[in-house]
Each structure stands twice: as C-alpha cells, then as structure tokens.
Amino acid sequence: MNVKKDEKGFSTRSIQPDGMEQDGHGALVPPIYMSSTFVFPSAEAGGARFAGEERGMIYSRLGNPTVDALEHAVAGLEGGEAGLAFGSGMGAISAVLMALVESGDHVLCSDGLYGCTFGFLSMMKRKFRVDFSLADLSDEAAVRKAMRAETKVVYVETPINPTMKLVDLEMVARVAHECGAQVVVDNTFMTPYLQRPLEHGCDVVVHSATKYLGGHGDLIAGVAVGRKAFLDEVRMSTLKDIGAVLSPMDAWLILRGLKTLSLRMERHCENARQVAAFLQGHPKVQRVRFPGLDDFPQGELAAKQMEGPGGMISFEVESLEAGRKVMDHVRVAKLAVSLGETTTLIQHPATMTHSVIPAEVRQGEMGIADGLIRLSVGLEDVEDVIKDLEQALEKI
What CDD domains does this protein's entry cite (predicted)? Predict the structure, then answer.
C-alpha cells in the first residue's frame, strides 16, 4: 500500500495523531461520547447519511466519535488509509475474513494460529465450505506449493503464537498478489511500534487491542487497518450486521494506552531480552524461542522487518507435568491467558489457548509441544521476574 510516510516520530503521533479533530471546547483529551444514537439536523440530512452521501454520526453501531478517534489513531500508526474498531480481537479477525471469502474459497494460513482463529476457520469450513490449510510461510517454495486457484486470503501470524516462528511478509505478499490473493496479518504480538506489515506489501492488519495497544488488561477490543474502501465495506456489512461493536469507553481507554505504547514496548523488549537470556542458560529449560536471542534461527529476517523482539517468549521444559509445576509455583508472574499488559503472564498453550486444536495438528503441523510454556513479560523489575522463574523451575 502506497501511503505517504509521516515526518513526525512514532511517539509524537501516538500522543498527537495527525488530523485528530479537537472538540468544540478545546479539550486536550478527546471526550467520551456515551451516546447510542445521534440527532439529525433534518430529515434530508438523515437520509443523506444513510445513503452515504453526507458525513456524520447515525448510530454507535455504525460509528461513534470516540471510536472514530481510535480508528484514526491506529491507522496512522500502522501507515494505513483507515482503521475499523471491534468489540474484540476475534471480532476483527472474523469480520475481515468473512468480508474477503465466499463459499468454496480457500484461506492459506501460517503453520501456527491462535486457537480461536483456528476454531473460527474450522467453523467456516464445517458450516460454509470455506476451506483452510496450514503451510510453512517462511519458505517461498512451500508458499507457492500451498496456493490454490481458490485461495483468496493468506492469513499470517508473525511471530507465530506461540512458537515465535517468523514469516517473511514481503515474500508472502508478493506471492499472494501474483496469485490474486490478499494478505491479512495479525500484528498483535509486535504492535505498529515494532512492525508495520502494510509497509511490506500486506493488505490488512488486525490486532487484538486487548493486548499491547490497551496495555493494562482492563478491556476487550480489536482493530483492523487497511484500505478505506475495503474497511467501509466491512463497516456496513460484517460489523454492522453481526455487531461486534466497540464501546466508546473502551475506545477511550485504548487511546490513553497508545500514549505510552512506545515506552511500554521498549520496557517489554528489554525485560524479555534479560528473561530469555536467563532461561536459555537454565539446565531445566530445553529450548527458548525469542527473536531477541543471538542464536535465533531467523535473526536476519527479524532484523529486516521488525524493530525489536517484542515481549513474548516461549520455552520448553521436559513434559506437561513439568510445565504445570512451573506454572503452579510462580508468584510474580500470574497464571493467566492474554498477553501484552503490565503484569507478567504465564500460560500453557497445549491445555489453554490452543487446546481447541487437535493434538496431531498442534504437535505435528504447529510444533507446539506439551511442555511448551508461553510467557508474556511485563513491566515489573526484571530481577523479580527472573527470581520468580528461577524458584519455580527448581520445583521440577
């Protein structure tokens, strides 16, 4: 997507989004418009808004000033023409995919998916004949081999949740476009501070804004960014008619979270680097997967398309039971799903976030072992996180 790059820095734009309209009272912080509906100045104006001939608010399922401000802000950070907010990350993912495919189409996915994304695609296959398959999207030959005549979407996680494997976005976008497919990227792990898929030729970016964009574990939300014409279509179809709408209060909380996004991501990255180095040197840890390690197998690709390693780490211990012992004995880290908030979170993909995936697919195609633990490194003093993991690992 050819979008003119802004001359201002990321932090400036996250605090002061370009083109953000100030309210009539000059409020520094955008107000929260807690209104379900909006009054038309005339019947003619109301009709024109419904016909798409005049800008203006109609009903908060179709648009709300506070939600619009969030959409504008995230689109600017991702370098997209427009944004569209949803009531959850899965609301964004499902709405975008449903808008792009029809019965008989095929979705090609990275060989690792968030469990609920896998579940949604399985339902689409079972009920609506939209097929999907997994492939190693880090290899061009494998991508070309996996593409079909009916492939309409290539759906990418990079880094993949929870294996941390990377996908070459420029390569995938090039191959997909040659075959007439569009590329959708889940950028939740990286945020636009560390990775901007649209700059690498991809078509749509989706986020669970519940995670790093909000940043404090107090809301559920999703955002999609891409071409305005496409997102206008999604707004008036899958968002409007299915109704995964974001509340104005949650939109305001994410706008507040964006103001500290760059600071938080720097701390997440630095803490994760130190935690990963500790885990890599521990005798009871068999493998550590983290893009910031010197021996990370895709280090060259990470340097090419990412501006930092992020705050997510996966590491393997000897067994499912060993993993449970670690998770049952942490005290600073909290045993909970989700990620990207101030608190360090630890969880077990095989029995939690990815439990919906059949074992043969999870272990064989995705590479998620029973002893794999996912760690979302928070903003605590990193020495405390390391000491906590050390004492928990001693219980194995």
Answer: CGS_like
pLDDT digits (tens, 9 = 90+) for 29-65: 989 999 999 999 999 999 999 998 999 999 999 999 9
Could you give the domains of the chain? 25-258 (3.40.640.10), 261-393 (3.90.1150.10)
Q: What is the pLDDT of residues 102-133, one digit of tens each?
A: 999 999 999 999 989 999 999 999 999 999 99
- The catalytic residue among 33, 105, 111, 114 is 114
Active-site annotation holds for 114: yes
Give me the sign of the Cα torsion angle 310, 199, 216, 232. Answer: negative
227 is annotated as an active-site residue: no
Residue whose structure tokens are 């509340």? 247
Of 68, 105, 168, 186, catalytic: 186
Q: Is 144 a catalytic residue?
A: no
Its pTM stands at 0.94
Catalytic residue among 13, 165, 211, 235: 211
Q: How far apart are CA 170 and CA 377, in angstroms?
A: 28
Distance between CA 237 and CA 344 in Å, rounded? 38
Catalytic, 23? Answer no
